[in-house]
Specification:
18 helices, mainly alpha, 2 domains, binds zinc ion, two-stranded antiparallel ribbon, two-stranded antiparallel sheet, HNH nuclease domain-containing protein, flat, 49% helix, single chain
């Protein structure tokens, strides 16, 4: 998982609003006067009221919904907070409790199972479903009761989303605008796997891209966020398909953070490995991922490794690692100094460390550039492992 620069999203806000604001406003106006308005079953109020303050359309709220961050939405608007919490409660609820307790290194006792379900419901608490929760007082006791509680919330959420879809719906995003957004996000490599290039081009008439526009929070559950710029993550087709398949798995949000020193690729000698393997003579080593730390971010990182099958897929990149090990051995500090001397003799500028890294390894080894070149996080980790 590679961190993406949120500034690339913010930069597009004005143009995006110009394109989308009027579409939403029109939908809202139609919904406002319809004789059979959609209702929010959690609150008993009209769905259109989600977009209002003081009885009229709140354009600032709409602006935040379309171009603000999730924390902007939840900190400024109570309804948006309730909505997102409710969606999260439903979306993440398909966990396997024994697996989750394993990840937390907790015993699989009845008490721990109950505590886990209680903590889960507290974490995504919202006054919207207090009544439903009260009607399921034993929801924490077993999977059956827990599922019945979630199903009741989900039934309401589905009705609500149907109503929201009349006003905010991904199908309202014009194809050309979608390509244009991805083109301007400056993401050149899939942030989830850091393996596949994302290619943008102009075919003489309009922008095209080879990438998928992933919804970090899937539009099928988080309908209200289906047109939110900060919910769009350009990704490769394979990763986007995996995201869609994996219902309810919490992973890092790439606009917040990516894998850093707490999620490392490592090469580990296999039993047949030798000194030759360390200096790039052969590929008698394995590539593993080491996730350190504890708590929520540790769990989300491990989930990402599992969801995108990173450890398994990266085993096919041994040749890349062998080449790095070889280059590290072949180009010593002496060679670097010779190169700098040569440049000086020729009256040319000295190379910066990033340029030297690019020259030596083919990577700048700057975390800021991880989203520019495939396998750059792998290269970064392996070289640091050699230096340590
Ligand atoms: Zn990918």
């Amino acid at each position: 998982m590679i961190k993406l620069d949120p500034a690339n999203v913010t930069r597009q806000a004005t143009e995006y609003l110009n394109e989308m604001m009027n579409v939403i406003k029109r939908n809202y106006q139609v919904e406002r006067i319809t004789p059979s308005p959609a209702m929010n079953p959690f609150t008993g109020r009209r769905v259109a009221e989600l977009f209002e303050s003081g009885g009229t359309l709140d354009e600032t709220l709409l602006d935040t919904l379309l171009t603000g961050t999730f924390s902007d939405m939840t900190s400024r608007y109570m309804d948006l907070q309730d909505y997102i919490q409710t969606c999260r409660l439903v979306y993440y609820s398909s966990f396997k409790i024994h697996y989750e307790l394993d990840k937390l290194r907790l015993p699989k006792t009845q008490r721990e199972r109950e505590r886990f379900r209680e903590r889960y419901a507290t974490r995504y608490a919202s006054s919207w479903f207090d009544q439903i929760k009260a009607a399921h007082p034993n929801y924490m006791q077993n999977d059956e009761y827990f599922d019945a509680f979630i199903d009741a919330v989900e039934a309401n959420l589905n009705t609500l989303n149907e109503g929201i879809g009349r006003i905010v719906n991904y199908s309202m995003l014009p194809d050309e605008l979608r390509h244009s957004i991805m083109n301007r996000m400056g993401v050149e490599v899939c942030p989830y796997c850091n393996r596949q290039y994302i290619t943008h081009y102009h075919d003489g008439i309009k922008f095209k891209t080879t990438a998928d526009l992933d919804h970090f929070y899937p539009k099928s559950v988080f309908m209200l966020l289906s047109l939110s710029l900060f919910n769009f993550v350009p990704s490769c087709h394979i990763c986007n398909s995996r995201c869609k398949l994996a219902k309810g798995v919490e992973i890092l949000y790439p606009y917040d953070r990516g894998y850093m020193d707490d999620a490392l690729f490592k090469y580990v000698l296999t039993p047949g490995g030798s000194i030759d393997s360390i200096v790039g003579g052969n590929t008698d080593f394995d590539i593993e991922m080491e996730i350190s730390g504890t708590g929520a971010s540790h769990r989300m990182m491990q989930n990402g490794v599992d969801m995108f099958k990173l450890e398994k897929l990266y085993r096919s990149h041994k040749e890349c690692v062998r080449e790095i090990l070889y280059k590290k051995q072949a180009y010593s500090k002496l060679h670097q100094d010779d190169l700098q001397d040569l440049l000086e003799l020729m009256g040319l500028e000295q190379l910066t460390q990033h340029e030297m890294n690019l020259f030596q390894y083919g990577y700048t080894l700057d975390p800021e550039n991880f989203s520019k070149r495939p396998l750059s996080k792998l290269a970064y980790d392996v070289i640091r492992q050699i230096l340590n």
